[in-house]
Amino acid sequence: MSNVPRRAVIFAGGYGTRLMEETEARPKPMVEIGGRPILWHIMKIYAASGITEFVIPLGYKAHMIKQYFADYYLHASDVSIDMVDNRVTTLRKTAEPWKITLIDTGIDTMTGGRLKRLQPYLNDEPFALTYGDGVIDLDLGKVADMHASSGRYATLTAVRPPSRFGTLTIDDGQVLEFAEKPLGGEAWINGGFFMLSPRVFDYLDGGDEMVFERGPLERLARDGQLQAYQHEGFWYSMDTLRDKKHLEELWMSGRAPWKRW
Q: Residues 6 or more apart from 65 whose CB is under 8 A from it?
């Protein structure tokens, strides 16, 4: 029996202030890579591992995400429209078989507060969680297996962040190798792809101002309930316009490591 959960939560309510060139007009998860919102790319990553139900907490410009998915089936289908009686017939559909629950969790609510508001929609089952701005070439099945076998309440994916600069290998003044944006140093960081037990809600005891990554995760760690899956592969977070352009270049060149579908 697969340990991959049925549902994934994708945070999609923040302002995305460091990407203001794009986010003045749209929520950060709706910023496009290759003509598709990065939110769509993240959902495709999950779907490749069998997760096809999504619970998405909204905030900033929530109506734009709702409208995108309300129109998605139509845009992904060939249709015949009879203008006489306003009848639309679907000829061919290419929309993914996803179930998407969109919950407005407030403009200024923090991540812990947003997650807490989703508890009624998660049916007291294990679930995946991530942010609406990062992509990865992760085998989610392996993370789910580790999480299930450990019995702990939370598993995060630890990654080595890419360097913001290229590196040189130099010998006696000669450049032997140039590596653009190699993996960073030895430090591991939280890559933001979680597997969680419903028991994590016991740790969400604050209000809308609660930040998931601080109090709740810190207490889980102190209680021995937080473990890490160490991922040595590709991970990238779209924090700036430069990041957006880098992901766009990877996608358009056909070298997007996160495209596992």
A: 12, 27, 29, 30, 39, 56, 58, 102
Task: Say what the pTM is.
Answer: 0.91
Q: Which H or E run includes 95?
A: none
pLDDT in tens, 195-205: 999 999 999 99
Confirm if 4 and 49 have CB atoms less than 8 A apart. yes
pLDDT score for 1: 57
The architecture CATH gives domain 7-159+188-252: Alpha-Beta Complex (3.90)
All structural domains of the chain with their residue ranges = 7-159+188-252
Residues whose CB falls within 8 Å of the CB of residue 110, separated by 6 or more in sequence, listed in order: 208, 209, 210, 211, 212
Task: Quick: pLDDT tens for 53-102.
Answer: 999 999 999 999 999 999 999 999 999 999 999 899 999 989 999 999 99
Which positions ≥6 away from 67 have C-beta within 8 Å? Answer: none
Q: How far apart are CA 113 and CA 212, in angstroms?
A: 8
